[in-house]
User: What shape does this take?
Amino acid sequence: MPTIALPSKRVFSESRHVREEITWPSGSSSKVLTFFRQFIAEAGSTSRFLQIAKTYQELRSSLDTCATLADNWDSYGAAKPARHSIEAADRFLQKLFTALFMPNRVIPSAEGGVAVYFNCDNKTAYVEYRNSKEVILAMFDDQSDPIIVELTENDADESRALSLIRSYITS
Amino acid sequence: MMPTNPEHSPLSEATLQARPTHQEGRTVVDSFDSEEFLYRRYALVHFADGQILPQSISFPKPSFNRSKFSRAEDVLHVDCCDGKKLPGWGVLESSTSDLCVSAESGDKRKFTLYPKHVPKPTCYAHSELWCSSPSSEDAKPTESSKEKLRILLSRALKVKIPATA
Assistant: This one.
């Protein structure tokens, strides 16, 4: 599975010497203006990446919390999320991070497992990794009949899920 | 308007700490009014953007308390939680008719939920949503149908007592 190698806790743990990377412009004012426009655009892009990285760390933290649950955590007899469910959700999160397409939350499922959730306006999508090794993709809004796709934990199905969710959420 | 609870334990009228009605020899009451409410507890993790999430519901036979023999807060009482204390949890409600949802499978079988009174010794109001198909009163829905049913149930459930934890 393609991944970006990530430190376990912090994406940027060392300070970066940005100033050394900058070649300051000289010459006409239009060149200077162009330089600063590009500089600001690049800074904005970097900021968005940092936001996504922060979201990723928060979701990993939620997943860690799911991993600490005990049986009957929902008081209706739910099984705790199995280790393979947590690992499968973690792999999917890494794939989403690589694609810079982050979900909104990670929650435990009363069916036994964990779900990765996406919301945009009135549209919702989730991928639920079950302890039974079933993987369910659901996409729905307030009104229409939910779309359900049964998947597996393999890499191709994760890519398919990502593609379907992105298409549904952003359409 | 919320239904009244004429058969509730007399203790409940005297104090908010009153226990839910125990079975104590009472028999099963099969019929449900379509306007009777069903209650279910939930934790804050399963509530987002003003909606309860389908992950709060599990199959088969998700549990509820029926309002004919229960107040909403009874579902948080230790007698109805197998002795477990759940501070900060909330309560969901929906009318029975709104919870009797249906989903069709890929092979066109229709699965429909219906309420069944299944009393417990210390929680007489305990009930479950069972699933029927054209060939069975206790059917196992396909995975896709089950997921649709979870989503439809989560749409029907509204917050009665908000969770804080």
Observations:
- The helical segments of chain A are 18-21, 29-67, 83-98, 155-170.
- DSSP finds four helices and five strands in chain A.
- Residues 19-170 of chain A form one domain.
